[in-house]
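User: Hi! I have a protein structure encoded as tokens and I'd like to know what sequence might fold into it. I'm fairly new to this, so please keep things simple.
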């Protein structure tokens, strides 16, 4: 890694027998952990993290399988389950001295954050989710030709072999496609960051695919078990997302209310990479959440 969040210290923290996470830590005060999305690394939080670090301890890891964190082979169905990845984050925060912390996630990191909130409700004090739905609902609302927007979900859900081969044959074209398509303001991801995201993703194809594959299998099973048992997110929750409900024909706020009673649901006009495209808006949403 050649790029860093200014003013943050970097370290590697073991969170499992074969997994050590790369993590950037900055600031002082009550802790908040920020989890990145696809196809990015912790660097997507660089603007937001710097602002929050003025009065919070801000922890920005690379998820297992991404960036400079370890990428174990997916030998078990749960190696890249969101339950396993959420446990990584709880262990990480504990080793950094934080038994309770706020948590925000974008995209894949948001799925990990949701699972952390469901599995560790006494640990997660506040939860922010940027531009995803819970895994079970995500699959339920994809129907017909509108599901083409999520073709990558279906590709990486296939059994091991073909998805990895296809993506590895032209990784920069594959990952770069999403960086270009999902950004309303491409200038928000400058050339050096884009190159870093592509390099990191190129070197992590098997683990990225394994993360997505888990979301077509074990993650759905765990969401279904929570829904059946009535398990909900008890902490204050803020959701910021593009208006996917209007595009795909569902009531996004109503869907989220089934998972969270104390909910602030917001839609944004900026692109998917909102922490980079509109960091002031995201900082405002996070500070409002932390004040609840």
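Assistant: Happy to help. Inverse folding works backwards from shape to sequence: for each of the 292 positions I chose a residue that suits the local structure. Here it is:
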């Amino acid at each position: 890694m050649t790029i860093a969040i200014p003013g943050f210290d970097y370290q590697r923290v073991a969170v499992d027998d074969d997994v050590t996470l790369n993590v950037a830590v900055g600031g002082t005060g009550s802790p908040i952990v920020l989890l990145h999305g696809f196809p990015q690394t912790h660097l997507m939080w660089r603007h937001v993290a710097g602002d929050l670090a003025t009065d919070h301890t801000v922890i920005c890891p690379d998820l297992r399988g991404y960036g400079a964190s370890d990428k174990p082979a997916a030998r078990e169905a749960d190696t890249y389950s969101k339950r396993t990845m959420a446990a990584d984050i709880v262990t990480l925060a504990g080793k950094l001295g934080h038994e309770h912390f706020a948590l925000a996630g974008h995209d894949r990191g948001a799925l990990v954050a949701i699972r952390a909130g469901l599995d560790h409700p006494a640990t997660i004090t506040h939860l922010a989710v940027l531009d995803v739905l819970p895994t079970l609902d995500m699959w339920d609302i994809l129907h017909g030709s509108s599901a083409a927007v999520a073709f990558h979900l279906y590709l990486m859900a296939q059994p091991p072999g073909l998805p990895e081969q296809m993506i590895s044959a032209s990784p920069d074209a594959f990952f770069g496609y999403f960086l270009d398509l999902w950004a309303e303001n491409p200038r928000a991801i400058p050339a050096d960051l884009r190159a870093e995201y592509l390099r990191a993703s190129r070197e992590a194809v098997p683990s990225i695919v394994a993360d997505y594959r888990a979301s077509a299998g074990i993650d759905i099973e765990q969401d279904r078990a929570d829904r059946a048992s009535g398990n909900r997110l008890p902490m204050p929750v803020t959701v910021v997302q593009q208006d996917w409900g209007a595009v795909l024909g569902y009531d996004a706020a109503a869907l989220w209310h089934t998972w969270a009673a104390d909910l602030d649901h917001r839609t944004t006009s900026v692109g998917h990479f909102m922490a980079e495209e509109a960091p002031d808006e995201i900082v405002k949403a996070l500070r409002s959440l932390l004040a609840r």
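A useful reference point when you look it over: The two ends are 36 Å apart (CA to CA). Feel free to ask if any position seems puzzling.
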